[in-house]
Amino acid sequence: xxxxxxxxxxxxxxxxxxxxxxxxxxxxxxxxxxxxxxxxxxxxxxxxxxxxxxxxxxxxxxxxxxxxxxxxxxxxxxxxxxxxxxxxxxxxxxxxxxxxxxxxxxxxxxxxxxxxxxxxxxxxxxxxxxxxxxxxxxxxxxxxxxxxxxxxxxxxxxxxxxxxxx
Length: 166
Prior knowledge:
Layout: H1 3-6, H2 15-25, H3 29-35, H4 43-48, H5 51-70, H6 73-110, H7 125-128, H8 133-136, H9 144-159
């Protein structure tokens, strides 16, 4: 999409504004996978809005570094094993989690309350005027007897002299 279209202010509501808001909030797969390179910081979990996992990754990383610096290799190796297991689980379930996050965001955007009908809005013009030809199309065709009666009335109105009442 051309960047100039994204800069348009369509905050009046409607489908175009909702689609623009949605495009800005959806989570991208390639960004999530790139953030997985910084898995010790839990960046991919922050990006997806998963607070528990986002805190767990740095905590386990700090525990592993602290255990290594303190010389307690059992704690460091356990923390690293848990980190590796979490990373494997994230790689296995990441596609489903991205789809779930995007589905929640899509529902939130499309089901959010709109601004409603503008003040003074009365509908389409053809809906308010009863004499418009668009409304006449919905009437049934006159019967043959009704057509003959209309023709007689038309012929009688043409025969009478102008200016004289009946």
